[in-house]
Amino acid sequence: MPVSDFQPVIGLEVHAQLLTQSKIFCGCSTAFGAEPNRNTCPVCLGMPGVLPVLNQRVVEFAVRTGLALECTVKKTSVWSRKNYFYPDLPKGYQITQYDQPICEHGRLVIDTPQGEKVIRVRRIHMEEDAGKNVHDTSGGQSLVDLNRAGVPLLEIVSEPDLRDADEAVEYLKTLRDVLVYLGVNDGNLEEGSFRCDANVSVMPKGSSTYGQRCELKNLNSFRFLKQAIEYEISRQVDVIESGGKVDQETRLWDVNKGVTRSMRSKEEAHDYRYFPEPDLPPLHVSDAAIDAAAKALPELPRAKLTRFTSQYGLPAYDARILTAERPLADFFEACAAHYADAKKLSNWFLGELMRLLKEEGTPLSALRFTPAQLAELLGAVDKGTVSANAGKDVLGEMFRTGKAPADIIAEKGLAQVSDTGAIEAVVDDILAKNAGEVEKYRAGKKQVFGFFVGQVMRAMKGKGNPALVNELLKKKLGD
Amino acid sequence: MALTLEQVRHVATLARLALTPEEEQRFTTQLSAVLDAVAQLQALDVEAVEPTSHATLADSLLREDATRPSLPPEKSLANAPAKSGTSFAVPKIIE
């Protein structure tokens, strides 16, 4: 059977570092990039006799995320110990949630070429991150930095509802946007603060029994997720086609070779001997706390996108880009409050503004001009005070200096000439100097018109109002 | 409930315990006796009793999300058998 006769079945496990100041069970900083082991204490080092105390913000973030993903938030959840030995795990166990996680039975709607699709979220639980191992290439040893040990994580597990690599990528992007909107995670795959493992299996089309699955690791970009899943699907189909059977195992995505390979070291470690964490009582979350979190939930990306299309009459394409990040969406709305033509505003956002933000590497929060000033500039373009082209230069200057558009237009002499008398004088002059061309035009060679426009604009240093220049030229040429 | 020698070896491996053949035999007998004792409890009907995961009835105590000073790295590393800079040095981890 060819690959097309098989149905891939994919579920994703996402680990998202929570944007707290301190670790989940101690007061050490979660700041990234400190000297190794600078942010460690007896609790996160796993010294004997210490006790973990839960960070309340971690609970708030978990509840907020659970509500955003339409989960049932459990009023009681239980901490467990997951036991295994690894150098980056100082206690010999990870404190996590196992059989009673804080959130269950959620859903996330994604876009597919066939339309909207609901991906069920099986569970969300809180846990502590492990430290980081650095493999010292010279010394034949590994180095352990425990700054990350104890940083709070949310693990978000989907049901195996994804059917191809593209759906998996779409789910991961949609989930990331939600977490970033919620302010619980920075969404950075490359730095590892938003990580993803994929469970992949294949079954013959039409079958209702899932095949044996493999867990893929090291998928630290959307591109790698897609490539690894596609590779793994064809690998599993090949195994089955050649009469073999797929082993349940953990496989690592090898970026350089573009293949997944077995991680035999992880095999026996799958026996984690979970048991309830005796150092932490069950966690109780009150109805009042859940209600308060529900009320404080921000508008989520999908709802915002829908509203941008209905309220502002924007095409879905524009709305999707404008709502991809909350600060940009907020800034757009602030500008729209000062300027009525939302589509025209959107064009400036998608074109010039985003180009400037990208080129200058400036975050929106550091923008030097106000929404009212941008609206003022667009108004000036509408009135013909400046040409659209000159308007782009004005925006660039506003971006760099924060000066008011009117001042920039005056200082740089960018004001468009809309004085009929002044333009007429130039038109007359150009026509007089180019009598031969005028003859040709009048004889029917209409394409010479562009030449006249160019000459007039050049003489006026680009500041002539194009509509008036055209109008006057036509009049003088007798059209 | 009799444990097999294989089960004891598996648990010992997970716990990183190197047992002598004599110890493997002894712990097989001892651990089986422990499981037998637990099996007696399982004979009780506890259908209506909520599982007790914890001995204390204390409610969750939460702390505010605020940082506190960490240890200086030299203190964190004071017990390390080997170190390199401010990192713990361990035998090379092979994937």
Q: What's the CATH class of the domain at 5-42 in chain B, please?
A: Mainly Alpha
Report strand % of chain A: 15-25%
- So, CATH architecture of the domain at 5-42 in chain B? Orthogonal Bundle
Q: What is the 3D form of chain A? A: elongated
Distance from N terminus to C terminus of chain B (CA atoms, Å) equals 38 Å
Q: In total, how many beta strands of chain A?
A: 17
Q: pLDDT average of chain B, as an integer?
A: 88
Approximately how much helix is present in the residues of chain B? 25-40%
- Count up the domains of chain A: 3
Strand count of chain B? 3
For the largest beta-sheet of chain A, the strand count, sense and barrel status come to:
9 strands, mixed
Q: What is the assembly state of the chains in this entry?
A: heterodimer
Question: What key phrases describe this protein's structure?
Answer:
heterodimer; A: alpha+beta; Arc Repressor Mutant, subunit A; nine-stranded mixed β-sheet; three-stranded antiparallel β-sheet; 17 strands; B: 95 residues; alpha+beta; Histone, subunit A; 3 helices; 38% helix; flat
Describe the protein in words.
The complex is a heterodimer of chains A (479) and B (95). Chain A has 479 residues and is α+β, with helices and mostly antiparallel strands. Helix content of chain A is 39%, strand content 20%. Chain A has helices at residues 56-68, 165-182, 222-241, 287-295, 301-312, 316-323, 326-336, 342-360, 371-383, 388-401, 405-411, 420-433, 435-442, 449-459, 466-476, and strands at 6-17, 54-55, 72-73, 76-77, 79-83, 93-97, 103-112, 115-128, 132-136, 141-145, 152-158, 194-204, 214-217, 249-254, 259-262, 275-276, 283-284. Chain A is elongated and about 95 Å long. The mean pLDDT of chain A is 89. Chain B is an alpha+beta fold. Chain B has a domain at 5-42: Histone, subunit A, CATH 1.10.20. In chain B, a hairpin with a 2-residue loop joins strand 2 (83-84) and strand 3. The interface between A and B is large, with 53 and 39 residues. Strand 2 of chain A pairs parallel with strand 1 (62-63) of chain B.
